[in-house]
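_Per-residue structure_
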Amino acid sequence: MNPDSQVVALLRDQLMGIVAGTIFLFIGLSSLMIAAVRRRRDIRIFVWLGIWSALYGALHLTQSSAVLAASPRWFEVGAPYANTAMTYLAVVVGSLSFRELSLGKMRKLILALAAVGLVIAVAGFAIFVFTGSNDRLILYNNLLATCVLLLLTTVAAVPALSRRYLLLPSRGVLAAGTIVFALEALCVNIMRPLGFSTPIILDHLGFAVLLFAFGYSAVQIASANEHRLLAIESELEVARQLQFSILPGATPELRSLRISAAYKPMTAVAGDFYEFLPVDEWRGGFLVADVSGHGVPAALIAAMIKVAAQTVTDWVDSPAEVLRRLGDILHDQLRGQFVSAAYLWIDTESGSARYSAAGHPPLLCWRRRDGALSRIESNGLLFGVSADCEYPVCEIPFVRGDRFLLYTDGVVEPENAAGEAFGDHRLEQVVRDCVALSASELSERLLAGVRAWQPASAPQQDDVTLIVIDVV
């Protein structure tokens, strides 16, 4: 028989193993591609399942003499090493796949079993490299595999254990798959030592059932997480709308003032807050606050500031009293978080303003008369540091053409690709360069400059609030 005929005969005898190995290898690689595209934590199980399936498929391909006969020399030489490594590592990868479906102490137990399997795998491979024996530790490997399988079958089959230790909405498919695989493995391991041959297709079908059960469970988890994320996003959108509803709907109509307010949250909800407290057509207060942190906790505190601000309307002409009372109201509610705030009271009839702050970035004041830009810092402690705090007040005379800027640190702290912050200097330079622009135009120019400063692909780095007040 010529060599080509021998290869054909081998292929005919080993066709089932070759086809099954190819299918499982393809399934494994497809699972890994899905995981690479999604790149989410709940997709990690698809990584382990992909590796597990690919190992099983590659193991049977490297065991096929027909495949080796038709392969390059280097593949034939390396196949025994790969075969040995995959034989030992299959238990480790299967255990880690199981771990992704488990909860609590079960995860630690499975991780410990996987660690034992890895030690056996390393030792077994080392023995093969130095002695050529690839089954010296296979008994221990098989015992470990049996322990893992019994643990999986027990947890999946017993409802009380499933509810406690499995991260699954429904355990039925996993329980059925593991029981079928366990029965197949038991049958094969009893029959073969007794001299009875069992079709190799039983091994493939048993593993296919187990892999399907794991894959179905993984899809269950991913689907449940998707629904949970959609629900959270929907709730965040409602929270976003509610938060915008507590902000002023329009700027106050005060004589001799042109006011622009910009509010750009980093996420769906933010910890920045601003409020207008007008008294009449000549006088009004401007409050800006910035809660430490981001997201829902910060947004809830921002909502509390809104409520607290309604209780200080009798003292709106006194920045120190406004901040002191706000701090007293919020102190017991902050629970370890902090709030910076700034309050500016403007009386256009008398041409004077009062300013005070609680650990907030300075007020910027641009003077038209001499083109000077002043940084006015009149700070007490942040809200949440002390229940009793005094806030110094700065008196600021102004004339027509002057400009005030209140802002949160989201304007000056964003960093470029080199890690350099936008900073006070650039903020002040934009203000100087845009003295001929209106309040709203300056806001747009400044926000565009801050956004351009950050890397194009980077998300917004902090909540941004900016109030520009022009005396006209």
